[in-house]
Give the backbone structure.
Amino acid sequence: MLSHTDFPLITDPYFYMVSIPAVLLMGISKSGFGAGFGSLAVPMMALAVSVPQAAAILMPVLFVMDVLGMAAFRKDFDLKLLRFLLPWGVLGIGVGTLLFKVLQAHVVAGLVGAFTLLFLAQRLLFPPKPDSPPPPRWLGVLLTVMSGFTSFIAHAGGPPINAYVIPMRLSPVRFTATMAFFFFVINLSKWIPYAWLGLLDWRNMATSLVLLPIAPIGVWVGVWMARRISQVLFYRFLYTGMLLTGLKLLWDALV
C-alpha cells in the first residue's frame, strides 16, 4: 500500500501497472460496450492504493469519459427514463456521503458483488420471456438509490442500475446513451461531497492528470464496438462484465 509522501504525484510503477488497464476498462464501459467491467477499476487500483484514494484519483478521469460518452451518444438517450432515474440516483449520492465514514469499503464491495451475482443467477435460472413486463418502478427506485450509493463509495454504480435497465431490453445504443447521461450527473454530484470529505488533494489530482490521456482511448474503442456489435452479443459482454465484477467485489470483501 502506498503511503502519502511529499511527491506531487504517485511515482510507484506498480500503481500505474494496475491503474492504466483499470482506466482503459472504465473507458470501454463508459461507451456501453462491456458496461459491467467499469466497476472493476477501483478494485484493481485498490491493489496499490486505498479504495477512497483510488476513487478520488478517478474523479477527473470519469468527468472526461462522461463528456466524451455524452458527445458520442447525444441524440440517442431515453429522456423519460432519465427523468425517473436521476432524482433517485442523486439521493443515493446523499446517502453515500452520510455513510462514507461509517461503512467500510470492503463491506460495500461485498454487498454489490453478492447482489450482482444474484441478479445474474436469476437471469440464468429464470430467463425473461419476450412478452415479460419491465421491472416495477418501486424496484427501480431501490436499485437506482443503490447505484448512486455504491457509485459514491467505490464508483461501482453500474451493477445495480444495470439490474433495473437491462430487463427493459433497450437497443445497445439507447442503453449506452442513457447510462452515459445518467452517470454524468451522478459523477458530477460527487465533486462537492468528495471535497468536503477531504479526498480531492493535490497529490490525487496530479496523479489523475497523468492517467487522463488514457481515458479517450478506452471510450473510443468502446464506442467503435458498441455501434457495430449485435444486441445479443452486446448483452453477453454485459453479463460477462457483471459476472467478473461480482466475483471480484465479493472476493475483495471476503479476503
